[in-house]
Amino acid sequence: MAHGGQGRPISWIAVLVICVGFTVAGVALCMDPTWWLFWTGVGITGAGGIFALAVGIMEDYSTEGH
């Protein structure tokens, strides 16, 4: 378990996937909007969220010892 909010590398990969999905969806809304690309971004974000929960991202931060 990481302390001090550092996080594990696998957790940062999950965060990166979520950010990429959010960015794809945001760009899609700015481009006309392009709905198929928006929903693709939403799917990527959702998959990243499920991945984050599967790798135990919520266990990376502990307030024990603070």
Mean pLDDT, to the nearest integer, reads 89
Number of alpha- plus pi-helical segments: 2
List low-confidence stretches. Answer: none
Distance between the termini: 14 Å
Which structural class is indicated by helix and strand composition? mainly alpha
> What characteristic shape results from the CA principal axes?
elongated
Radius of gyration: 15 Å
Main β-sheet: number of strands, strand sense, barrel status? none
Query: How many β-strand stretches?
Result: 0
Our estimate of the beta-strand percent is: under 5%
The ordered string of helix (H) and strand (E) elements is: HH
Helix content: 55-70%
Task: Present the secondary structure layout.
Blueprint (H helix, E strand, L loop, with lengths): L8 H22 L4 H20 L12
Helix pairs in contact: 1-2
